[in-house]
Amino acid sequence: MLYNWFQNITFAHPWFFALLAVLPAMIWWYLKKAGKYQATVLLSTTDSFKQGSSWKNLFRHSLFICRCLAVVCLIIALARPQTRFDEELKTGQGIDIILCMDVSGSMFAQDLLPNRLESAKQVAADFVDSRVTDRVGVVIFSGESFTLVPLTTDKEVLKNAIYNIQLGALEDGTAIGDGLGISVARLKDSKTKSKVIILLTDGEDQGGRISPLEGKDLARTYGIRVYTIGVGTDGYAPVPIPDETGRVVTRQQKVNIDEKLLRLIAEQTGGLYFRARDNESLKGIYREIDQLEKSKIEVTTFRRYTERFHPFAIAAAALLLLEMALRFTLFRKFP
């Protein structure tokens, strides 16, 4: 407990600890003085003194111990122990970002571990943590689209919503245009200078209320950059599928990503296209986007100190008073 207390303590005048060097000198002087004034008596036997030790003799060094402890407490008090509290005020011009995530059945594929969706959820949550002053929202889509979280700066709400995304919550399919359109609708009225959509999918567009090209044109109209991410390995990927008996079996399914479409959406809106073939590449993509879309942040730090020397000063005074009281009462010497 004492160790943990000192872990949170700083000292305003730590050079006062150099005075602790006086303690060895005090001990040396005390021992020398005690030896000088010790009486010597020659006796033929000590049997009569074996029962003669008193409590005063046993505790005769307690006065000196009190004095040493008082000096230690006084030195600590002079060093001015303090606890420090730092408060950061972060201000700046943030970016409005929509994470547009594919939640179709193919996101069960296990070419990313444990599967595409779980890997995408983890890196998206980490990305949210990295955006200090930005507003972030989440849109999910499959055969239809849905705003999971509108633009907010509440990181905990965003991360909880991302972690709770489940496959099968929406009608199955891959309506890329609908997901892009809903994302644009969430950003179009934003007053920030920088508006971004990160569109993540593992498939080809299978139709919806609006086409991906219409969604792209809407993004361009409102000055929204779209970063597109194609998730999945080349060739085939293992996908768990229930068979006729209800058992879940893993089957190989062909990976179909319309890279041409995703690259076109990114290029014509001022963004970039990325391909994530494994967990590490997906993490690297989000890190790269994080570096590309930097916010202007000003950090003002307020530092407050609380003085903690009072207990040590009181303890030093109490020990000195105790020594004086004992010296003139219980340990008083008579001439």
Automatic annotation (TrEMBL):
Cited CDD domains? vWA_BatA_type
- Taxonomically, the superkingdom here is Bacteria
Chain segments annotated as transmembrane: 12-31, 58-79, 309-330
Pfam families on file? BatA (PF07584), VWA (PF00092)
Where do the VWFA domain residues begin and end? 96-289
Q: Keyword set for this entry?
A: Cell membrane, Membrane, Transmembrane, Transmembrane helix
Query: Which PROSITE patterns does the entry mention?
Result: VWFA
This chain's protein is named Ca-activated chloride channel family protein
| Species, as recorded | Pseudobacter ginsenosidimutans
